[in-house]
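Dear support,

I submitted the protein below through the web form. The confirmation email said the job was done, but the results page showed an empty box. After a refresh the structure appeared. I'm attaching both so you can tell me whether what I see now is the final result or a partial one.
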Amino acid sequence: MIRENPSVPILMGLVLLVLGVVIGGELLQGTSANDDPTVARPLRPSARAQGRQPASSSAKAGASLVFISFGAGLSLYGFRQSKRQGLLLRDGVPVVGRVVHIHHERKRSSRLTYRFVDDQGQVREGVYSTLFAGGPLDELQVGTDVTVVYDAADSRRHTLDVDHVRRADAALRRL
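What the results page shows now:
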C-alpha cells in the first residue's frame, strides 16, 4: 500500500475550495459590469463580438459546486490521513526497517520502498511517496535503516517515520 504525505491532498483540496468560492462569489455578485450603465466599457470588443459567449450563471454555479465539493472532500481526506498517521506514530510499534528501492522523478517526486519484520516474524513491505523534491527521502539510499511504525493489531497498517519521531524507540527495541 502506498503511503503519501497527507499535506498534498490537504493543500490541493484547499486550493480547489478557494477556487470554487471565488467562482461562486462572482456568481453571487449579481449584476456584472457589462450590465451597469454607470461603469465604463473596455475599448476592446466584448466577448460576444468575438464569437465567444460568456459562461451562463448555471454553468458557473455548477463549476462552483463541483470545485467546492471536490476541494472539501480532498481536504477532509488529507486531514483524515494526517490524523491516522499521527495516531499510528503515537500508538504504533516502532521497528527498524530497511530501504530496498528508491525511485526519484526528475526534480519532483520520490518513491521509496521499505521492508520490515513485525513481532510475529512476518516480512512486510511498504511504499512511501512524496510529490516535492528536497524532503527527507532525498538523503536516503538503498540499504539504509529507517524507522517504521506499525499497528500492533494489524501490521499491514504501517508508515515510514520520515520525521524520526520514534527512531529512539525503534533502536531500543532492536537491542
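Response: this is the final, complete result; the empty box was a page-load delay. The longest strand covers residues 93-104.
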